């Protein structure tokens, strides 16, 4: 499968519908579970949305600038920054609280 893939979260209620975010490929449905040998992890998982996954991948994995990554995704730099910020916060929260991480696939 080759991209680009368009993904858009759904807004409920009145207001302008959000712009689609263009993804290079659909993110895999993956679950990361922390391993602690002495206790069982039953915490609620933290869900990484497809646009957060793509923003993290473009900026931190591929090394693009925020400006270039925003152009690839078809959004403003501010929108990309918000996706990066929420993605980072979720990852840090999952590490600190030892909670599973779920990367949500496009459905």
Give your account of this protein's structure.
The radius of gyration is 15 Å and the shape is globular. It is of the alpha+beta class and 107 residues long. The strands form two sheets. The chain has a three-stranded mixed β-sheet with strand order 3-5-4. The chain has helices at 50-61, 66-73, 77-97, and strands spanning 5-7, 21-23, 30-32, 46-48, 101-103.
Q: How many β-strand stretches? A: 5
Fraction of residues in H or I helices: 25-40%
* Structural category: alpha+beta
Global mean pLDDT: 85
The fourth-level CATH homologous superfamily of the domain at 41-107 is Winged helix-like DNA-binding domain superfamily/Winged helix DNA-binding domain
Largest sheet: 3 strands, mixed
Low-confidence stretches: none
Q: Distance between the terminal alpha carbons, to the nearest Å?
A: 15 Å
What's the CATH C level of the domain at 41-107? Mainly Alpha
Alpha-carbon Rg, integer: 15 Å
Give the DSSP E fraction (strand runs of 2 or more residues). Answer: 5-15%
Order of helices and strands: EEEEHHHE
- CATH structural architecture of the domain at 41-107: Orthogonal Bundle
How would you name the oligomeric state of the polypeptide chains in this document?
A: single chain
Q: Strand order within the widest sheet?
A: 3-5-4
């Amino acid at each position: 499968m080759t991209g680009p893939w368009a993904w858009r979260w759904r807004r409920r209620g009145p207001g302008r519908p959000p712009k689609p975010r263009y993804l290079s490929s659909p993110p895999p449905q993956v679950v990361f579970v922390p391993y602690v040998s002495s206790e069982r992890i039953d915490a609620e998982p933290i869900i990484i949305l497809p646009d957060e996954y793509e923003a993290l991948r473009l900026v931190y994995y591929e090394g693009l600038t925020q400006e270039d990554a925003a152009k690839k995704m078809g959004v403003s730099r501010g929108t990309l920054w918000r996706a990066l910020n929420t993605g980072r916060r979720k990852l840090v929260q999952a590490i600190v609280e030892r909670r599973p991480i779920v990367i949500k696939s496009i459905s």
